[in-house]
Amino acid sequence: MWAEIIVTLIKLAVVIGVLFTTVPIMVWVERRGSALIQDRLGPNRVGPWGLLQPVVDAVKLLTKENLIPEGVNKLFYLLAPAIALVVALSTFIVVPFGSDPGLKLFGHAVNGFIVAPGLNLGILYVFAIASFGVYSIVLAGWSSDNKYSLLGGVRSSAQMISYELAMTIAVVGVLMASSSFRLDTIVTDQAGTWFGFLPRWNVFPQLIGAITFVVAAFAETNRLPFDLPEAEAELVAGYHTEYSSMKFASFFMSEYMNMVTSSALIVILFFGGWTLPGVAAPTGWAGAIFSIVVFSLKVAFFLWFFVWVRWTLPRFRFDQLMGLGWKVMVPLSVLNFVWVGVAMALRIL
């Protein structure tokens, strides 16, 4: 009993620690990456290669004056950033981040590198909790008593609901192929190869679904070219215009945490998770560490991909964004799961 609680708390502490550590790392990567793409230097004054710049940013946010404008609905104004941060932290507890070849800790089975291994809903839990994220942005926009913030919140609700539909339908093909909602089972189902050389990853038979999911992930995390809820050109800063200090930092951190979760889901659903075809993983703790390293490297690639796209593509107009969601992404995601159903009926998959 106590060993089980301790193991769960250790896994929870590791996940929270990794998420909070990834935020400053990605802030540095974002700044240096944008400088590289735009042929600039980027941060280079604080620490070697500007590595301490995230620390300076954190001190700045912590010491900024905590302003609350007049006219706001104080309860919802303060609740909105808290919801954003809680949702970002909660979605990762069902995401497996490594394999478990029967490991034990304090005499108790580790039961997978996943905080809540007994939750068999897996991907459905992620979608259910992530859907609450739209409430934080809508509440922030409405409670701020600012028309620009309100427009940003309205844009966000329309955008996130539209692309959630495409994202959910894109996942249906993966669930059909693996016959399970559990994310660790989906990873296990992608082990091995086709024809002796092609990784058995879902991205190959379900390329349309993978593309749809990745595009929807950009829209769900409000990243360029889908950052219309916080478009500075016409909305000042959108839904978080009236937020400062750590209230703004909560929105800021939740965006990067959502990027980590989205990247992890892309890797698990379509790129084989911690599996690496042609490489025999070690056994015991060495095998577990090897799987975590492989998984982390794949996630790191997609985190860089988020940065790369942000500083490469221009922002859509809002009518283009909604048209892409309903007229392109939804039909493509439906086409993907129809194809999977036909392929399974013909025993191709």
In short:
The chain has helices at 2-37, 53-63, 74-90, 123-130, 133-143, 147-178, 183-189, 207-220, 232-235, 245-270, 284-310, 318-345; strands at 104-105, 108-109, 193-194, 198-199. It has 349 residues and is mostly helical.
Write structural notes for this entry.
The protein is mainly α. It has one domain (68-345). 63% of the residues lie in helices and 2% in strands. It has helices at residues 2-37, 53-63, 74-90, 123-130, 133-143, 147-178, 183-189, 207-220, 232-235, 245-270, 284-310, 318-345; strands spanning 104-105, 108-109, 193-194, 198-199. The strands form two sheets. It has a two-stranded antiparallel ribbon with strand order 1-2. The mean pLDDT is 87.
State the main characteristics.
12 helices; globular; 4 strands; mainly alpha; 349 residues
Give the terminus-to-terminus CA distance.
Answer: 42 Å
Question: How much β-strand is present in the residues?
Answer: under 5%
Residues in helices, as a percent range? 55-70%
Number of discrete domains:
1
Number of helices: 12
* Largest sheet, spatial ordering of strands: 1-2
The overall average pLDDT, rounded, is 87
User: If you compute it from the alpha carbons, what radius of gyration comes out, rounded to the nearest whole angstrom?
Assistant: 21 Å
Largest sheet: 2 strands, antiparallel
Query: How many extended strands?
Result: 4
> Which structural category do the helix and sheet elements fall into?
mainly alpha
Rough outline: globular
Runs in which pLDDT lies below 50 for 5 or more consecutive residues are none
Helix and strand sequence: HHHEEHHHHEEHHHHH
